[in-house]
Amino acid sequence: MTFSLRSCSHSAHNASALTPDLCHHGNTRAVSQCMGNKMNGSVGPMRVLVTGGSGLVGRAIERVVKEESGEREEEEWIFLSSKDANLMSAEETRAVFERHRPTHVIHLAAMVGGLFRNMRQNLDFWRNNVFINDNVLQAAHDFDVVKVVSCLSTCIFPDKTTYPIDESMIHNGPPHETNFGYAYAKRMIDVQNRALFQQYGRRYTAVIPTNVFGPHDNYNIEDGHVLPGLIHKTYLAKKEGTPLQVWGSGRALRQFIYSLDLARLFLWVLREYDEVEPIILSVGEEDELSIKFAADAVVEALGFEGDVIYDTSKADGQFKKTASNAKLRKYLPDFKFTPFRAAIKETCDWFVANYDSARK
Amino acid sequence: MNTGSGLKVIAILDYYSSPCFKCILTPEVFIKPHLSVSLSLSLSLCQMDGSVGPMRVLVTGGSGLVGRAIERVVKEGGGREGEKWIFLSSKEANLVSAEETRAAFKKHRPTHVIHLAAMVGGLYRNMRQNLDFWRNNVHINDNVLNMSHEFGVVKVVSCLSTCVFPDKTTYPIDETMMHNGAPHDSNYGYAYAKRMIDVHNRALFQQYGLKYTAVIPTNMFGAHDNFNIEDGHVMPGLIHKTYLAKKEGKPLHVWGSGRALRQFIYSLDLARLFLWVLREYDEVEPIILSVGEEDELTVKDAVDAVVEGFGFKGEVIYDTSKSDGQIKKTANNAKLRKYLPDFKFTPFKQAVKETCDWFAANYDTARK
């Protein structure tokens, strides 16, 4: 059933008939965006633009939307990739919004990389991500998007901090030196969200996942994150009959979240979560794991039987980043995460089956 | 290349192929205005030992409070032979636009930049428009720093402020504490945009070895300020209100309780220090430019100095229903004193008197 864009009858003069933080119509073009503007917790039919739609989280959301009745009748989901638009360009970003006229945005697009790439290119990580984020948030505002859910990360939190970290602590000190460019750029999404709310009443928000993993990740060993890097290296070690070299001591601690679980939670945030302050999306503190534990799970999933060597000359990155998911649990006490080993097995199976086309 | 002036050019590098250009000229040579060259001829002497040769300095925000003070100090003996100083204003280029910023850099080809341009305002305007303060300043700062990098600028000195420091903090604040917590809620948009200059500087140093830096003045005042009462800062606002109160024979209404504490720095003193930072200060970490903690004053002290500066004899009323902003922001100038133990600041009452005199003499053209 196609989604009519012309049924919205209110104009700037009728804006007061809606809840006050909606429909700031400065022009007739924005009138058509009003479908789905219900801030009582539910939303009507939406047109959702997902930036970074071809990435790890984007693909997971796409799968959940398609396979798990995530898509409601009359909704439209558009998954954007960098092929469609370079979001570092304001013009290209606006062209995308002009073309798709979303009512909602899930903003995942970013310049990302693992520890070692961040350490070398803090300027690029800072600038490119600030541009992307500013372009998307500003275009969303200009095109009267009802809600934007952006994606932060626990790696942007203050380096010197008490644990567990929670949503109120993001700005309480400088981030870790290794990725301060990326970290500040992500933090500024929250600053811009708050400013959009303060100046215009927009309820744009953000989520804070811990370490994400799953199919469709970037498995590049030099630039990748810890789990996809491990999966790729173990695959090659098994194939070539060489030892598995793990960077760092293996003692660093992380909370891992499976991309499909994250996607399910993203949909809940989009539809139901009404705060401007971000929300941590993670397994609980009790499920924090060491890198060694993760390596063992990957070794088991791929059936690797060779030597595992820990190269302690390489950096561990932040030793721990324990995040509290109390806020999530307050809202969704019964949400079930996929068990870690099962999620690793699924991911490894996917990687083996899709090795040739996987990003690496 | 025939320059017609006996110019000995040892090495010319095209701007776009090198992040740091060097062009060594024999000292007695000068470039005649009618000279036309098809290559990008650089006049910079990139000496990284702390001293600099003749510079071409672009001052963004050149028509503002600090820019005008720098211009005056440069003209009255602070400049050196062979230097060229360009004072840019928003009339010439809108630095929120990347294209216009690039055009300005292309036109002026600076070797050094003093970056003062910003969207600024007093307490009340900030409270209403955090988004605009955030976005416009991020764009301006990114454009200037990025163009400086691209055009091989040796050094950029940007301008932060003590108002960008964490709200919850111990006192006195020093240069290491800037990012240690969230800024005050009243101006977080402006504050974060300014803080990100320091982030950008550090990233430029980490990725490219560039030593761009920044200064952190406390509350500045002086001639050529923005004296708008609604949007202005505390000193120019007081000066304007006192002038009007005297002229109209009305009471002087001061917003807030008068108990808030501030360190004030006269724009001419700040300008002298800016020149020192540009020439001599070699760190990437910013430096606080301020009178010492012992010279912290209340807003009431400032009111009294302005009242005296104008000879105002009417009533002074403190409207405590208005916000004080941050009650104190005491900054530590130990780093400055370590470098310049003998620097003399203009005495406060004298600086206020000079500023009041300027305002009265220039009322019609003053920004308000």
Automatic annotation (TrEMBL), chain A:
**Superkingdom of origin organism:** Eukaryota
Q: What is its EC number?
A: 1.1.1.271
Question: What Gene3D superfamilies does the annotation carry?
Answer: NAD(P)-binding Rossmann-like Domain, UDP-galactose 4-epimerase, domain 1
Q: Which GO terms describe its molecular function?
A: GDP-L-fucose synthase activity; isomerase activity
Isomerase is among the record's keywords: yes
Where is each NAD-dependent epimerase/dehydratase domain found?
48-284
Q: Which pathway does it take part in?
A: Nucleotide-sugar biosynthesis; GDP-L-fucose biosynthesis via de novo pathway; GDP-L-fucose from GDP-alpha-D-mannose: step 2/2
* Keyword set, alphabetical order: Isomerase, NADP, Oxidoreductase
| Matching CDD domains | GDP_FS_SDR_e
User: Which family does the record claim for this protein?
Assistant: Belongs to the NAD(P)-dependent epimerase/dehydratase family. Fucose synthase subfamily.
Functional summary from the UniProt entry: Catalyzes the two-step NADP-dependent conversion of GDP-4-dehydro-6-deoxy-D-mannose to GDP-fucose, involving an epimerase and a reductase reaction.
**Protein name in UniProt:** GDP-L-fucose synthase
Q: Which organism is it from?
A: Cyprinus carpio carpio
Q: Which gene encodes it?
A: GFUS
From TrEMBL, chain B:
Class of enzymatic activity (EC top level): oxidoreductase
**A Pfam family reported for this protein in Swiss-Prot or TrEMBL:** Epimerase
Q: Which controlled-vocabulary keywords does the entry list?
A: Isomerase, NADP, Oxidoreductase
Occurrences of domain NAD-dependent epimerase/dehydratase (ranges): 57-292
Q: What pathway is it annotated to?
A: Nucleotide-sugar biosynthesis; GDP-L-fucose biosynthesis via de novo pathway; GDP-L-fucose from GDP-alpha-D-mannose: step 2/2
The record's section on InterPro entries has: Epimerase_deHydtase, GDP_fucose/colitose_synth, NAD(P)-bd_dom_sf
CDD domains from the xrefs?
GDP_FS_SDR_e
Instruction: Output the Gene Ontology terms for molecular function.
Output: GDP-L-fucose synthase activity; isomerase activity
Protein family according to the UniProt entry: Belongs to the NAD(P)-dependent epimerase/dehydratase family. Fucose synthase subfamily.
Q: What does this protein do?
A: Catalyzes the two-step NADP-dependent conversion of GDP-4-dehydro-6-deoxy-D-mannose to GDP-fucose, involving an epimerase and a reductase reaction.
Per its record, how is this protein called by name?
GDP-L-fucose synthase
In the record, what lineage is assigned to the organism producing the protein? Eukaryota, Metazoa, Chordata, Craniata, Vertebrata
